[in-house]
Amino acid sequence: CFGSLITLRSETLAMITAGPHHKGDVFATARIAGIQAAKRTWDLIPLCHPLMLSKVEVNLQAEPEHNRVPIETEFCPFSFTA
C-alpha cells in the first residue's frame, strides 16, 4: 500500500466535494490518473522494471476538517521481476 497526502485551501476542497464540477468528477479523474500511472510506472521512472498488474485500487477520501485529501493506492502484481 502506498499513500500520499494533498493539502488544499478550504475553498478549493469545498468546491471539489460540493457536488458535480462543471468539468467532471475531480475524484474520479484523480482515481483514473492514479490507475494509469501505476500501469505505466516503468515508462515514467527511469530504470524501473515493467510489472504486469492484476489489480490497482486508488482510494481518495476528503478530510474537510483538516483541508486535505489522503490518497491510498494498492496493487497486486501479476508477475514479478528477478
TrEMBL record:
Pfam families: MoaC. Keywords: Molybdenum cofactor biosynthesis. GO terms for biological process: Mo-molybdopterin cofactor biosynthetic process. Pathway: Cofactor biosynthesis; molybdopterin biosynthesis. SUPFAM superfamilies: Molybdenum cofactor biosynthesis protein C, MoaC. Residues 5-74 form the Molybdopterin cofactor biosynthesis C (MoaC) domain. This is Molybdenum cofactor biosynthesis protein C. It comes from human gut metagenome.
